[in-house]
């Protein structure tokens, strides 16, 4: 069996029958059939052995390292105030991107919101994040410098001139629950 091992971030594939595995170091993409690892979820960080002996690569073995979940949503729902404020600060400064830490009512950090201005021309930033062309890994790694994963990561394309990446630090907490109630 021709096989390779590595650490990957799991993303949705080009259709519902495949996963996109992004190498966490190089961001090199590998598409594998979901049937080779149906129990994975988008956002999981895994250590895996890829079997290259067939017509297409498949996951021969894997271990979930972090159970972080990614959700990719295009929505007509109003976007939350922290994202609007973050984008407006970027626009005022003439920047295409901005970030800010969000806090709960007790003043503790509960998330990090990033806003990216829509790009002119044919670029679709939301699709680039979903398809791994624009990696989310550096943003997740930055959040993991101060907090312990797993996280709940939301990539949202609202009816606004920006795309949001929101890293919720506690995937079981109130903020994650509020995000799910609002956007799912």
Tell me what the structure shows:
The strands form two sheets. Strands 3-2-1-4-5 form a five-stranded antiparallel sheet, with no helix packed on it. A five-stranded mixed sheet has the order 6-9-10-8-7, with helices on both faces. The protein is α+β, with helices and mostly antiparallel strands. The protein is built from four helices and ten strands, in the order ββββββαββααββα. It is globular, with a radius of gyration of 17 Å. It has two domains: 3-67, OB fold (Dihydrolipoamide Acetyltransferase, E2P) (Beta Barrel), CATH 2.40.50; 70-183, no CATH class. InterPro entries: DUF6663. This is DUF6663 family protein. Pfam families: DUF6663 (PF20368).
Search tags:
single chain, 184 residues, alpha+beta, OB fold (Dihydrolipoamide Acetyltransferase, E2P), five-stranded antiparallel beta sheet, five-stranded mixed beta sheet, globular
Strand content: 35-45%
The helix-strand sequence is EEEEEEHEEHHEEH
Q: Provide the residue-averaged pLDDT.
A: 94
Output the strand order for the largest sheet. Answer: 3-2-1-4-5
DSSP summary: helix tally: 4
Shape: globular
N/C terminus separation: 41 Å
Q: How many domains make up the 3D coordinates?
A: 2
User: How many strands appear in the DSSP assignment?
Assistant: 10
Summarize the SSE layout with pairings.
Layout: E1 3-12, E2 18-23, E3 29-33, E4 45-51, E5 58-66, E6 69-74, H1 81-93, E7 97-103, E8 109-117, H2 125-130, H3 137-143, E9 152-157, E10 162-168, H4 174-183
Parallel strand pairs: 6-9
Antiparallel strand pairs: 1-2, 1-4, 2-3, 4-5, 7-8, 8-10, 9-10
């Amino acid at each position: 069996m021709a096989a390779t091992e590595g650490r990957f971030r799991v993303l949705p594939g080009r259709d519902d029958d495949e996963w996109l595995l992004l190498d966490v170091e190089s961001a090199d993409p590998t598409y594998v059939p979901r049937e080779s690892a149906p129990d994975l979820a988008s956002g999981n960080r895994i250590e895996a052995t890829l079997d290259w002996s067939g017509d297409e690569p498949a996951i021969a073995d894997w271990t979930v390292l972090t159970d972080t979940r990614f959700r990719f949503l295009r929505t007509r729902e109003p976007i939350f105030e922290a994202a609007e404020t973050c984008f407006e600060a970027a626009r005022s400064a003439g920047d295409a991107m901005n970030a800010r830490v969000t806090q709960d009512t007790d003043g503790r950090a509960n998330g990090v919101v990033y806003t990216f201005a829509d790009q002119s021309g044919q670029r679709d930033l939301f699709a680039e994040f979903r398809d791994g062309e624009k990696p989310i890994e550096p943003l997740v790694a930055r959040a993991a410098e101060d907090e312990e994963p797993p996280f709940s990561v939301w990539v949202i394309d609202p009816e606004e001139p920006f795309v949001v990446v929101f890293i919720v630090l506690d995937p079981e907490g109130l903020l994650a629950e509020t995000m799910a109630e609002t956007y799912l």
